[in-house]
Amino acid sequence: MNQWLDERLHISRLNDKFLRKAFPVHHSFFLGEITLFSLIILILTGILLALAYEPSNSLVTNSFDPGTSDKPNLIPAAYHSALKINAMPFGDMLRRIHHWTANIMVAAAVIHMMRIYFTGAFKKPREINWWIGMLLLIFTALTAVTGYVLPYDNYAYQTLKVIYGIAASVPWVGEWVAQAAFAGKFPGAGVIPRIYGYHIMLLPGILLALTGAHMLLMIKQKHTQPQYAKRIAYKKIVGVPLSTQQTPIMLLLAIMFAAIIVLFSAFIPVHPIEHYGPPSTTPINNIKPDWYLLWVFGALAIIPSFEVHLFGGLIGAEFVGAIVVPTLFLLAMFAVPMLDRSKDNMYYAENPTNHPVRLAAGVAFMAAMIVMSVAGYKPELISAGILNTANANTILWILLFLIPAVCYFGVLGIVRGIRTLREADQRERGAFSPADD
Amino acid sequence: MTRYKRKDPEITRRKFINAAMGGTVAVGGISLLSTLGTANPVFRLTRDKMPPLKGDVLVHAEESKEGQIIKVSELSDQLVRAWPMGKGEDGSNVIRKGDPNNILALFRFPKGQLVAPTNLEATVDGEIVAYSDVCTHAGCSVADSDQGDGMKCPCHSGQFDPKRGCIVTGGPPPRALAQLPVQLDGEQLVVSDFFLAMPYPYIAESEWESFKKEVEEQLA
Question: Cβ of B156 and A383 within 8 Å?
C-alpha cells in the first residue's frame, strides 16, 4: 500500500520533509504540544456542544419550570439550551471539559511562552514565530472570552455588559464599534448569534490558520536545540524523529493530558449556570474575569477616575485601564525579539542565568502582572480588613512598582551570587586538578 | 534583464491580469464593506427602551416581585431596585426594561439625612430619593456596600454615597449616579421628569439632550 500511495502522493518526500522531523528530548518542549492538544480537545468538545446549543437570546418558556399560562417563565433560548445541555447524559461533563481545557490551553500557552522567553528561543531567526505566538495568545484569550458569554446566564450577561462598555469607551468611534461588534445597543436582539459566530467560526478559523503557520515555521526553522545537543553533536540537529519515535510519546502525552482534564472536570465544577440564573439586573458580588484577564480587571479597579475631553472625544479611566494599559503590556511582549541585537542565527537554548537582565526583566514583568491580578481582588482585600477603602489604591499602586523592582534587583543579585559561587568552584577545581587541562 | 524592451502596442497579458485582479479586489472590498455596514443594526426607539418618563410608575425589578407597584412602606436605607412602568402605544402597561440602563435605585432615609448635592426638590419630602442604578464607569448595576457605607459597584469597586446625590466616594467612576425626580401620587411613586443629569451610557450632555428630544418628538 505504501508503494501505491507513494506513486500517487509522493509519501517518501513527505516522509523526508515532515515525518522525519527531529524533536528535542526535553520535557519543556511538551508545553507547545499540550497547547495544541488543548485546541484539538476544544474543537471536538465544541462541536459536540454546538450540536445541542441554541444561539439565540430570544425569550422562550423554560421547559424545566414553565410558570403559569398567564405568567410564563421566560428565559433566553441560549440559557435554556445550556440548561438542557446540563441535563443531557454527560452534558455537564462536556461543558466542564470544554471550560477546563480552555483554561489549560491559555495556561499552557503562557508557560510555553515563558520557556521561549527565558531560553532566548525568540531570537533570530525565530522572531516571526514569536509574533505569531503572541497573536495566538491574544486570539485564544478572545475566543475564551466569547465562549464565556455563550451560556448567557446572569454572569455572562454582566460580563458582556462590561465588555460592551469597554468597547464603547474608545474615544470618537467607541459607540459605533461596540454596536457593530455586538449587534446594536446593549443587549442587541442579535447579540448571542453574533458572539456565536465569533466563537465557533471566526476566531477558531483564525486560531487554526495561525497554528498552521506557527507549526510550518517551526518545522522549517527546526526547534531550538537543548544544551545537551551542543555537547553530543555540535551544529547538528539532535532529537527523535516524529515518525515513528516521537509519535507514541505524543500519543501517550495526549492521552494522559486528556485523562487529567477529564479527572479535573469530574471533580471540579465550573461556572454553575443554574446558580447564576438567567440575565437580570441583580448585580453579582465579586464578579471577575478568568485568571488570564484578571490583570486587566485589576488595572480597572485601581485606576483613579478621570476624564479628558479631546477634540470631541472622551478619554476616560475605562479606556486607559482596559485598552491602553493592556495594549502597552502586549506591545512590550511583541517587542521582545527586537531588543536582541545579535546578527547570528541562534541554535541552542540558553541558560537563563547566563542572561541575568533578560531573566530579571521577565520575572519583574510577571510580578507586575501578578500584583495587578491581586489588585483585582481589591473588594475582597477590603472586606477581609487587610486594606481599607481609603488606602487600598495607594498601597496597591506602590506595590505595583515596588514588587517588580524588588524582583528585578533580587533576581540580578541571586544570579550574580550563583555566578560568583560557580566561578569560585571552577577556580578551586582548577587549583586541585591541573592535570585535566 | 533583457537589453531590448519589447514595445507592444497592445495591452500585455500581465497588464490585463493585474488590472483584472485590482478591479476584483476593489469591487470585492467595497461589497464586503457594505456587508460589514449591516453589522450594526438600525436602532428602533420602542417604548420599552425609552428612559424613565414623566408619569411613569415605579415598579419592583426584583424577579420574584417584578411589575408590582412599589409602596412607600417597602423602602428603607437599603437599596430597592425599580423599573419605570409607562404606557405603550395601545395604552397597556409597559415596563421599560428593553434598555437595561433604565434600572433605578430607590432609598428612603430619615428626614435630614439627605443633603446637597442631592436635589431635595426632586425627592419625596426629602426622604425618598431615586437614582439611576447603573455605574457610570462600565455600566454594571450598583448594590449596597457590604461595609455599610453607601453603594458599591461589584465590577470595579466604584463607590457612591446615596445621601449626597450619589457622588463618587471611591473607585474609577467618573460621575455621580444621575438622580431621577420622583413624587408621590396616592400610594404610587411616580416619575416627575427626566433624569436631572445624563445617565450611563452618555458621555456628553449634548447626546443626552438630543436623545431626550428624540423621545419627546416620538411621544408627541
Answer: no
Out of A179, A307, A378, whose CB is closest to B157? A378
What's the rounded Cα separation, in Å, for the pair B205 and A388?
34
Q: Stretch B17-36: mean pLDDT, rounded?
A: 92
Predicted ipTM? 0.85
- Identify the sign of the CA torsion B44, B45, B47, B50: positive
CB count within 10 Å of CB A271 equals 16
3-state secondary structure of A22: strand
Handedness of CA A61, A63, A69, A75 (dihedral sign): negative
Domain ranges for chain A? 14-272, 351-431
Q: Which residue in A has a C-alpha nearest to residue B168's C-alpha?
A: A305
Residue of A185, A283, A303 lying closest to B140 (CB–CB): A283
Question: In which element (H, E) is residue B125 found?
Answer: none
Asked if residue B157 and residue B90 are part of one domain, the reply reads yes
Q: Do A282 and B153 touch (CB under 8 A)?
A: no
Is residue A57 within 8 A of residue A189, CB to CB? The reply is yes
- Spatial distance between the Cα atoms of B165 and B163, rounded to a whole number of angstroms: 6
* Element at A81 (helix H, strand E): helix A77-87
Residue A165: closest CA among chain B residues belongs to which residue?
Answer: B138
Q: Does B33 touch chain A (CB under 8 A)?
A: no
Q: Which among A183, A186, A318 has the least Cβ separation from residue B137?
A: A318
Identity at A20, one-letter amino acid code: R
Q: Are residues B18 and B66 in the same domain?
A: no
Say whether both B151 and B54 belong to one domain: yes
Residue B208: inside a domain, yes or no?
A: yes
Q: State pTM to two decimals.
A: 0.89
**Chain A environment of B201 (Cβ under 8 Å):** 165, 168, 175
Q: Work out the number of other CB atoms within 10 angstroms of the CB of residue B205.
A: 10
Name the minimum distance, in Å, from the CA of A364 to any CA of chain B: 25
Of the candidates A158, A185, A382, which has its C-beta nearest B140's C-beta? A158
pLDDT at A142 (0 to 100): 95
Decide if A305 and B39 are in contact by the 8 Å CB cutoff: no
Q: Assess whether pLDDT exceeds 50 at residue A437.
A: no
Could you give the number of structural domains in chain B? 2
Which of A161, A281, A382 to mutate: most B Cβ within 10 Å? A281
Task: Name the residue with cell 434598555.
Answer: B99
Q: For residue A134, which of A1, A275, A329 has the smallest C-alpha distance?
A: A329
| d(C-alpha A16, C-alpha A322), whole Å | 48
Residue by residue, DSSP assigns A145-165 as HHHHHTT--HHHHHHHHHHHH
Q: Where is mean pLDDT largest: A11-20, A359-368, B102-111?
A: A359-368
Residue of A nearest to B102 (CA): A281
- Fold that domain A14-272 belongs to in CATH: Cytochrome Bc1 Complex; Chain C (1.20.810)
- Picking from B130, B45, B56, the residue whose alpha carbon sits closest to that of residue B86 is B56
Give tens-digit pLDDT for A159-181: 999 999 999 989 888 888 999 99
Domain that holds residue B75: 47-219
Closest residue by Cα to residue A158 from B12, B156, B216 = B156
Show which of residues 199-218 on chain B sit within 8 Å of chain A, judged by CB atoms.
201, 203-204
